[in-house]
């Protein structure tokens, strides 16, 4: 895979982390996820840029760590933080 393809994968994982984080927050605040929260959940994803960046950096870190442990060179470790757009 090219560094750009790896960047795409990291970005996709970051979106997943973000969605899971929002779901977790909703579940914590209500104890359960009522039907009306499902629509709100879909809208709230990506509303907090700081969290989006945090999720993106975590995804990049996890991805490059797992790739390194698998012997896969991604080229992402050399990119500065913030080089990816969430």
Report on this model:
The protein is an all-alpha fold and 86 residues long. The chain has one domain. It has three helices and no strands. α1 packs antiparallel against α2 and α1 crosses α3. The two termini are 20 Å apart.
Short précis:
The chain is mainly alpha-helical and 86 residues long. It has one domain (3-69). It has helices at residues 3-30, 35-44, 49-69.
Strand and helix layout:
Elements: H1 3-30, H2 35-44, H3 49-69
Helix pairs in contact: 1-2, 1-3
How many H/I helices?
3
Number of strands: 0
* Low-pLDDT residue intervals, each spanning 5 or more residues: none
Order of helices and strands: HHH
Strand percent estimate: under 5%
Basic shape: elongated
The biggest beta sheet reads: none
Average pLDDT metric: 78
C-alpha end-to-end distance: 20 Å
Quickly count the domains.
1
Look at the helices and sheets and give the structural class: mainly alpha
User: In terms of quaternary structure, what is this?
Assistant: single chain
Tags for this model:
86 residues; mainly alpha; elongated
